[in-house]
């Protein structure tokens, strides 16, 4: 095939930034300020500029559209989306970046975003037409990736205070996995995982209840053995 016969194609980046707020898994979304899908909720993102790497573009668009300080945000590529009809403007391939991070602040809209806010991920996933383009599929993939990440890494401890109880750690798993976990089984699994948790030797203060042992994060970054994700629905 001659070069002249190759189809024209633009490259874009989109970002699924996830955190835990108000005891729910939440996603960062913007309201698009320009067509197509003007006024519709979307993941932050935009086109790759000349001379940019994909990583550069992801950080630039996150800063422009949400005002978040990207200095300490570690985002990673998850998947490329290349359906020929995914964007009404033409042939555009988008690379999705994902991050699951604690303690993220309220965003401030800018650039191509009229507003920027945190929204419960389950609320967005329950409405397939809520997000522009194919961003519902992107968010679905990002949430599944985040949930799988908790199975074989120690990232859940970053959502806990420096010293925490097993119940506090279990709450992180329940929120992100969207399920209720058996307290005894969870306690057994996480305390047996190699270098996952370190007992502090202290216990919580109590107002008549039974004090709980306090732990801190161990040196491990991967879980051995991995925690199998339970998939039954979380109940109120």
| Helix and strand composition category | alpha+beta
Q: How many extended strands?
A: 9
Separation, N- and C-terminal Cα atoms: 58 Å
Q: Beta-strand level of the residues, as a percent range?
A: 25-35%
Total helices: the number is 5
Q: How would a crystallographer describe the biggest sheet?
A: 7 strands, mixed
The averaged pLDDT comes out at: 92
Low-pLDDT segments: none
Can you tag this structure with a few keywords?
5 helices, 7-stranded mixed sheet, alpha+beta, two-stranded antiparallel sheet, 25% helix
Q: Would you kindly provide a brief summary of this structure?
A:
By secondary structure, the chain is α+β, with helices and mostly antiparallel strands.
Structure explained in plain terms:
- The protein is α+β, with helices and mostly antiparallel strands and 236 residues long.
- The chain is built from five helices and nine strands; from the N terminus they run E-E-E-E-H-E-E-E-H-H-H-H-E-E.
- Strands 1, 2, 3, 4, 5, 6 and 7 form a seven-stranded mixed sheet that branches. A two-stranded antiparallel sheet has the order 8-9.
- Strand 1 and strand 2 form a beta hairpin.
- The radius of gyration is 20 Å and the shape is elongated.
Q: Layout of helices and strands, plus pairs?
A:
Layout: E1 10-21, E2 24-32, E3 41-42, E4 45-47, H1 54-66, E5 76-81, E6 92-100, E7 113-120, H2 121-125, H3 135-152, H4 166-177, H5 183-192, E8 197-203, E9 213-217
Parallel strand pairs: 1-6
Antiparallel strand pairs: 1-2, 1-4, 2-3, 2-7, 5-6, 8-9
């Amino acid at each position: 095939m001659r070069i002249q016969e190759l189809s024209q194609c633009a490259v874009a980046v989109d970002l699924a930034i996830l955190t835990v707020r108000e005891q729910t898994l939440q996603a960062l979304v913007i309201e698009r300020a320009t067509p197509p899908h003007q006024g519709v909720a979307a993941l932050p993102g935009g086109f790759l500029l000349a001379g940019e790497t994909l990583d550069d573009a992801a950080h630039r668009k996150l800063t422009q559209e949400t005002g978040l300080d990207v200095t300490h945000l570690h985002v990673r590529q998850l998947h490329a989306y290349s359906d020929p009809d995914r964007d009404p403007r033409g042939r555009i391939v988008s690379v999705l970046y994902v991050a699951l991070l604690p303690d993220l602040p309220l965003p401030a809209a800018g650039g191509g975003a009229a507003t920027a806010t945190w929204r419960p991920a389950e609320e967005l996933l329950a409405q397939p037409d809520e997000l522009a383009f194919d961003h519902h599929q992107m968010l679905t993939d990002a949430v599944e990736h985040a949930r799988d990440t908790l199975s074989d890494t120690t990232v859940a401890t970053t959502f806990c205070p420096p010293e925490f109880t097993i119940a506090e750690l279990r709450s992180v798993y329940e929120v992100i996995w969207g399920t209720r976990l058996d307290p005894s089984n969870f306690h057994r699994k996480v305390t047996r995982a190699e270098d996952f948790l370190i007992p502090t030797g202290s216990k919580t203060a109590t107002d008549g209840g039974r004090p709980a042992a306090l732990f801190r994060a161990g040196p491990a970054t991967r879980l051995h053995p991995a925690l199998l994700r339970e998939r039954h629905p979380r109940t109120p």
